[in-house]
């Protein structure tokens, strides 16, 4: 790691000063590090709590893990990969891709691995952040929170769950030392992770109970391996891969029409979902159980060619009665049925809008990000900056998520904004910026009405898109290219600034 070693004192420890400190090295943090380097900003450090780059793609190693966004779109625009083996990439390939990219751009030496950020506080006098980590202490002119939205497993609060005596683990913390072969297994949850896990383990387990709280629409996937001549063409004619990427991007934007602009058009997709159910499930009772009661897109659509077939197997039961209690060796559903189980997989999702890292940043007013969100709702300015938190950027912050296409597109858009902000701060000789509270309020006031007619608000479901206040604080309610356009340049007018001391 190379950072300028300007010592600084906060009354307790020597600290290294860096211009930019990035928290997390998943797709967001790694991408930021690379782009900073390309821009000639080399005085930065990335603190990563895990042993390597990769974030959610390093952590989610469950059987069947893969991406349900097509491979050519699911990569950095500046680092296309002609070697994808399939049209939808399996997790090991994406993890390897991120490692390769980190090596190719030489950013590993800027990382501190196995290094958890433990606290960061804004020092208004000095106009910089004091950041503590498990391995070193820093001051930083700017902090980039790239801790990820799919980083912190959400564990269900079910009566008796701590008394379970078999193996129990979350999908993002798969216990590879435990073999499920020949065991009685329960999977709790039927989201995007579960639909990949269930078909992968069903053939090997003795019996599988899948606990479904809410049925969700499942769409087919045009998945296939790439042939050697195709990979040859991607390698030697890069324009071809770029063209395919552009076509996939445009096709995916069509989902904005069905979810945001004209939700009734989603009925066409629902018809596809119904046909799929009829074709893939023999048991009429099971078909009724998996038929969603909400409009398609209200919850994130699932994508799988194998999930229904797995549920239809003789050794698999779909339990829809709700879980009353977990006992030492069994799960009791609300109708009183007790089912024996040796291992439980919690495919129950993640803390998205309430990342534990938000407790660790203390801003200008002495409040943490969590406390500010608790008081005012989880909201940001353009999904990247927050009032009271000067010189700080959030990647994939409030209302910058997408549920139908590659999040890398949003991440790269936000990195553009960060780079332009840093350039602006340097050119104008500014020490700090803080988004004006009224700019943030106005931005969100204009944003929420766009949610009103979306299927996320009217589709008849609850989802992790909605926060504790019932607001959709997760998703961007428009075409993604409009988001990119909005954050193309750093709009200094929306910020209060302090000049650099001379
Ligand atoms: P998720 O979508 O949040 O699904 C969690 C599941 O657990 C839901 O079915 C939920 O039911 C259920 N659940 C939660 N708490 C429960 C409880 N106490 N009792 C019973 N059921 C409970 O989580 P995920 O499947 O891990 O996916 C999270 C996100 O990761 C996805 O939305 C997606 O963005 C991403 N992901 C992407 C891919 C990909 O291929 N790109 C793959 C996997 C994941 P309810 O529906 O009733 O809440």
TrEMBL record:
- Supply the SUPFAM superfamilies for this chain: FAD/NAD(P)-binding domain (SSF51905)
Q: What is its EC number?
A: 1.14.13.-
Keywords annotated in UniProt: FAD, Flavoprotein, Monooxygenase, Oxidoreductase
In terms of Gene3D superfamilies, this protein maps to: FAD/NAD(P)-binding domain
Q: What class of enzyme is it?
A: oxidoreductase
GO terms, molecular function: monooxygenase activity
Pfam families named in the record: FMO-like
Q: Which InterPro entries match?
A: FAD-bind_Monooxygenase_sf, FAD/NAD-bd_sf, Flavin_mOase-like
Q: Does the keyword Hydrolase apply?
A: no
UniProt lists the family membership as follows:
Belongs to the FAD-binding monooxygenase family.
The record's annotation in PANTHER family points to: FAD_NAD(P)-BINDING DOMAIN-CONTAINING PROTEIN-RELATED, L-ORNITHINE N(5)-MONOOXYGENASE-RELATED
Name of the protein described by the UniProt record: Flavin-containing monooxygenase
Q: Which organism is it from?
A: Nocardia halotolerans
List the lineage, top down.
Bacteria, Bacillati, Actinomycetota, Actinomycetes, Mycobacteriales
């Amino acid at each position: 790691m190379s950072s300028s070693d300007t010592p600084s004192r906060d009354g307790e420890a020597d600290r290294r000063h860096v211009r930019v400190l990035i928290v997390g090295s998943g797709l967001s943090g790694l991408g930021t590090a690379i782009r900073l380097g390309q821009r000639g900003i080399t005085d930065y450090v990335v603190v990563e709590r895990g042993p390597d780059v990769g974030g959610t793609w390093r952590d989610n190693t469950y059987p069947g893990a893969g991406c349900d966004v097509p491979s050519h779109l699911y990569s950095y625009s500046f680092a296309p990969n002609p070697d994808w083996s399939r049209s939808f990439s399996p997790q090991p390939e994406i993890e390897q891709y991120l490692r390769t990219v980190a090596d190719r751009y030489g950013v590993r030496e800027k990382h501190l691995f196995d290094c958890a950020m433990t606290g960061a506080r804004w020092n208004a006098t000095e106009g910089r952040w004091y950041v503590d980590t498990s391995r070193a202490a820093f001051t930083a002119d700017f902090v980039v929170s790239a801790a990820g939205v799919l980083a912190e497993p959400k564990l269900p609060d079910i009566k008796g769950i701590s008394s379970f005596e078999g193996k129990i683990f979350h999908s993002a913390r798969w216990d590879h030392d435990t073999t499920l072969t020949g065991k009685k297994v329960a999977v709790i949850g039927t989201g995007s992770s579960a639909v990949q896990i269930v078909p992968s383990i069903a053939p090997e387990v003795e019996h599988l109970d899948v606990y479904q709280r809410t049925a969700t629409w499942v769409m087919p996937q045009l998945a296939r391996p790439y042939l050697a001549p195709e990979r040859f063409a991607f390698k030697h004619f890069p324009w071809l891969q770029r063209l395919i990427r552009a076509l996939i991007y445009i096709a995916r934007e069509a989902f904005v029409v069905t979810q945001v602009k004209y939700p009734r058009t989603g009925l066409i997709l629902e018809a596809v979902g119904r046909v799929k159910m009829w074709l893939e499930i023999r048991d009429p009772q099971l078909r009724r159980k998996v038929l969603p009661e909400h409009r398609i897109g209200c919850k994130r659509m699932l994508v799988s060619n194998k999930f229904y077939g797995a549920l239809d197997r003789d050794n698999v039961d779909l339990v829809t009665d709700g879980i009353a209690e977990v006992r030492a060796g069994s799960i009791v559903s609300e109708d009183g049925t007790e089912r024996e189980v040796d291992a439980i997989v919690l495919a129950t999702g993640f803390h998205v809008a309430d990342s534990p890292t938000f407790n660790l940043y203390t801003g200008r007013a002495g409040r943490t990000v969590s406390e500010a969100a608790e008081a005012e709702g989880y909201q940001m300015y353009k999904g990247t900056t927050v009032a009271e938190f000067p010189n700080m950027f959030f990647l994939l912050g409030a209302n910058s998520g997408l549920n139908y296409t590659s999040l890398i597109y949003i991440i790269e858009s936000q990195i553009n904004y960060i780079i332009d902000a840093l350039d602006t701060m340097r050119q104008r000789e500014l020490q700090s910026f803080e988004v004006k509270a009224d700019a943030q309020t106005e931005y969100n006031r204009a944003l929420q009405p766009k949610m009103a007619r979306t299927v996320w608000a009217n589709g008849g479901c609850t989802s992790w898109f909605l926060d504790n206040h019932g607001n959709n604080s997760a998703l961007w309610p428009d075409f993604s290219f409009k988001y990119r356009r909005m954050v193309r340049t750093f709009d200094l007018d929306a910020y209060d600034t302090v000049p650099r001391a001379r």
